[in-house]
From TrEMBL:
Residues 295-365 form the ACT domain. It comes from Lysinibacillus odysseyi 34hs-1 = NBRC 100172. It catalyses: prephenate + NAD(+) = 3-(4-hydroxyphenyl)pyruvate + CO2 + NADH. This is Prephenate dehydrogenase. Belongs to the prephenate/arogenate dehydrogenase family. PANTHER family: PREPHENATE DEHYDROGENASE, PREPHENATE DEHYDROGENASE [NADP(+)]. GO terms for biological process: tyrosine biosynthetic process. Its EC number is 1.3.1.12. The lineage of its organism: Bacteria, Bacillati, Bacillota, Bacilli, Bacillales.
Length: 365
């Protein structure tokens, strides 16, 4: 029997889910987006099997409804959902970056007998929109699910059986705990990155050369400050309480660092960095909450044609790259050539390819 899935919101996340779920047997993917041009693109790119113009009119036929919309939009859709005619056993889920507000709203649906299970696929890209959608976007990334504590196991298993085709790591977690953990590893780091860039701007007003030196390590640790400001405005507002707690802890940590600089010995300062290195080096290399491109650092000598030489090796092995750049400031940076790939597997193959053909050291930061 064919399963009908409606994906509302066909941007990067919604589009990628739609593509991934096409691998599920006997499943038909319907899609809707508020923008007519996105609907047309999704149809042309075969992101979905069928485009719908009015979700409410087809809702009764759907076994699953997935909101690939930002949290603020999803909350509005959930309100509209109350007036839709739905299948008795339909499962509703979302993809929002924060979960507490969503699950609070879901209590209203639960009171009407509608099954809602929160979701958050923790993957992303430096690109956005339906044209950036990929069926493998969520491979090996954590896909968090936030069911109600008393949710029926049969319903959860039905959703997991569908979402397994994303190849993500399905993990169940409480909604409040989800928002706390993502504040720590994703939302708060965005604030820190943005604040470092603001500080650079202030310093650059006094010493204009400062900005020119902000390459290499500075660009890497502030990369996420280039993310969509509207998206991060919404996430920050929606997770305001957790972020205030993180800021207070951060300020206490910075005061500890200040005390180390004022009164600490060289050994104490070294120990501070040593502990940080030990913890950081033990972090998993698999996909986490932050989008991190798969960068390979290549330490190459400075002679004409060396970049085309390296990219030529990769082309011979048919390894695609997504970006390439030269790091001009070499202090504390492994290599001067940074090549980005779309997957860890491509990066690994690239490192082996270069090692076979040249005596260039390669590193993964």
């Amino acid at each position: 029997m064919t399963k009908n899935v409606l994906v509302i919101g066909l941007g990067l996340i919604g589009g990628s889910i739609a593509l991934a779920l096409q691998k599920s047997p006997q499943t038909k993917i319907f899609g809707y987006d508020a923008l007519p041009q996105t609907r047309e693109l999704a149809k042309a790119l075969k992101v979905v099997h069928e485009i719908v113009e009015h979700p409410a009119e087809v809702a009764e036929e759907m076994d699953f409804i997935i909101f690939g919309t930002p949290v603020s939009a999803t909350l509005k859709w959930m309100e509209q959902l109350k007036d839709w005619v739905l299948k008795k056993d339909v499962i509703i889920t979302d993809t929002g970056s924060t979960k507490a507000l969503i699950m609070k709203k879901a209590e209203e649906l639960k009171g009407m007998g509608i099954t809602f299970i929160g979701g958050h696929p923790m993957a992303g890209s430096h690109k956005s929109g339906v044209t950036a959608a990929k069926p493998y976007l969520f491979e090996n990334a954590y896909y968090m699910l936030t069911p109600f504590e008393d949710e029926r196991i049969e319903e959860l298993e039905r959703l997991e059986d569908l979402l397994k085709y994303t190849i993500g790591k399905l993990v169940k977690v409480d909604a409040v705990e989800h928002d706390h953990m993502t504040a720590v590893v994703s939302h708060f780091p965005h604030i820190v990155a943005a604040s470092l860039v603001h500080q650079l701007q202030l310093e650059n007003a006094q010493l204009p050369m400062t900005r020119s030196l902000a390459a290499g390590g500075f660009r890497d640790i502030t990369r996420i400050a280039s993310s969509n400001p509207i998206l991060w405005r919404d996430i920050t507002v929606q997770n305001r309480g957790e972020l205030i707690d993180q800021l207070e802890q951060w300020m206490a940590e910075m005061n500890r660092v200040k005390s180390l600089l004022l009164d600490g010995s060289e050994e104490m300062i070294e120990q501070y960095f040593a502990v940080a290195k030990e913890v950081r080096d033990a972090l998993p290399t698999s996909s986490g909450a932050l989008f991190v491109p798969y960068d390979l650092y290549v330490d190459v000598p400075d002679y004409p044609g060396v970049i085309s030489e390296v990219t030529g090796y990769l082309a011979e092995d048919q390894i695609s790259i997504t970006n390439i750049r030269i790091v001009e400031t070499r202090e504390d940076v492994f290599g001067i050539l940074v090549i980005s790939f779309s997957s860890a597997e491509d990066r690994e193959q690239a490192a082996k390819c270069i090692a076979r053909r040249a005596n260039f050291d390669t590193y993964i930061s």
